[in-house]
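Encode chain A's predicted structure.
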Amino acid sequence: MLSFTEAVHDGYGQTFRIDRLVHYEKTELQELVIFDNASFGRVLALDGLVQLTERDHHAYHEMIAHVPVLGHGAVRDVLVIGGGDGGVLREVLRHEDVRATLVEIDARVIGTARTHLPFVCGDAFDDPRAEIVIGDGLAFVRDTDRRFDVIVVDSTDPVGPAAALFGEAFYHDCKRCLRPGGVLVTQAGVPFFQGPQIAAAHALRAGLFAHATAYLAAVPTYTGGPIALGFASDADLAPGDLALLRERFRAARLETRYYAPDVHVGAFALPPEVRSLLHGA
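Encoded structure for chain A:
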């Protein structure tokens, strides 16, 4: 019987039974695997790390997309770094007045998502409000003269090429690309296992932005407890006013499975051990 074991954390891993191998290839940049599992449905893994599953991807994608967009309240342009599966792109484009640019380094991730992960991307890649750039997100924010209201960094963990997306130069360039009052949101890691990583990246963002914090989302596939999402802005937008968020949510006419305005506000209520990672004891 085939199985897939993810061992991202020292001394601990999780194993999925492969009920059907859907796709396997080594692209020019990474190993890409898609398989079906009885508990989680379809699973995408890159270089041995699970990126999403059919069963729970919505929790991550809704929270990393709608929290900054609704928290800001007047978003027109969103930049997505990474996210070649199309999940973040699809969620931000559910806001009718939003345009989005997605910068993905590996075109094959987009190609396989179109074919094998339609429940994630939908028709987002073909939306006329979407611009797809195949390239290095690090170079894009360094070189572009465009400005955005929200930047979402939907990256893998900071190993290999993705490590630079957790560095000071990258965050500095992201801030340069934000309009006044803009928001940067990043995949930060699981506090239970990745506390030092979260603390180090937060310190860099806090040194650049007037307001920096994190919020949590429960995604079963990302083992070890809730995942943290970094949130930084020169505007004081976190956690947000509940009544105002409810008004914006109604106006957006969204149907969601995980995100809700009260979940949005509550996600910024951090346990003491997570607060200590960000702000010290």
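The chain has a mean pLDDT of 94.
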